[in-house]
Protein 1
Amino acid sequence: MLYEWLKLLHAGSALLSISGFALRGYWMIVENPRLRSRPARILPHMLDTLLLVSAIGMLVIMRANPFAVAWLGAKILALLCYIALGMVALRFGKTRRVRVGAFAMALLSAAYIVTVAFTKSPLGPMAGWPG
Ligand code: HEM
């Protein structure tokens, strides 16, 4: 029961976190000053905390070692890439070209994470292929 609630919280915060990131990336591209607003700086941290706390809660209930389960390990690695690319896209990228490229790759990493979440396979979108 608690597990189901944590999973709902996890999937919900994941959806909001990725949608929020896409919106901030769009603001970066069109140079909208809202990107530097207080909510745009604080809300992502709150959502990401919920995402991770709910993930850790589920791992504790499952008694799973995320590094011993391939799809969980893949999710953690891809999450690190997503975070690093997101930081380049929204903060540290020196040129526009670098920022937009990092943003596109961060969105691809997020898509990969979501496919891993649903397929429970590190192959993500390729899981079950060729049949
Ligand atoms: C951006 C990062 C993440 C996203 C977008 C994400 C997304 C999701 C989604 C959508 C689900 C629901 C899948 C379903 O209904 O079958 C899910 C489940 C889950 N995620 Fe994540 N996740 C992320 C990070 C993580 C991390 C870092 C961990 C821990 C290693 C993790 C552990 C889990 C677990 C244990 C489940 C429940 C699996 C199940 O019982 O079906 N997630 N994730």
Note: The pocket of protoporphyrin IX containing FE is lined by residues 7, 10-11, 14, 18, 51, 55, 58-59, 66, 72, 75-76, 79, 82, 113-114, 117-118 (CB under 6 Å).
Protein 2
Amino acid sequence: MDLLKINFGSGTFPLPGWVNVDSDPACNPDVLADLGAFPLPFPDRCARYLHSEDFFDQLPLDKAFEFLRECHRILAPGGVMRLLTPDLHRLADLYVRGDPELMRLWTSYVGLPLRTGSLCEIMNLAMSLGGHTFLWDAPTLTQALAECGFEARAVRSGESAEEALRGIDLRSPENSVSMFFDCYRV
Ligand SMILES: C[S@@+](CC[C@H](N)C(=O)[O-])C[C@H]1O[C@@H](n2cnc3c(N)ncnc32)[C@H](O)[C@@H]1O
């Protein structure tokens, strides 16, 4: 059997050639599934690559750990998972320093009107908007990944040692506060 490439939380941006999974029927995913209900509907070791962009932060903390363990189960030995999620440290740092970059990112890429026009409001909204449940920072995410059987390597947007994982990111440091990891199954 050919190993799969699975994109979790694909939303309205399905990846061609990947099995796109989402719980929203309006997105017309290849597999309609609740990724917060376990076990996930895939057999052991069926995938060579996993990808998930801006979905992981929607899972409550206990489910996030379970999701990572399931990703480990689904990945074949030698498999790699690309994980993009907002970086709480970058977001908080922009806020604490009063950096106008935070306003630029909001205005250009989120665009929701602000009642107060303040970075305080942006910070509050960024923590909860779009279903955000738990925002991670790099050390906490790296530790969680290690607990679940992954070695996390920080990578640049769009880049990867794995050809299949290059150029698939929607987000970059110029249009988001995302962090980017290639997670190797140990
Ligand atoms: C912010 S969108 C990200 C979509 C796309 N990956 C992107 O980067 O733009 C988050 C997606 O996760 C999906 N999602 C949220 N909770 C989910 C769950 N429990 N199971 C499956 N999909 C879920 C939503 O339906 C939505 O399409």
Note: Strands lie at 4-8, 19-22, 31-32, 47-53, 75-86, 150-154, 178-185.
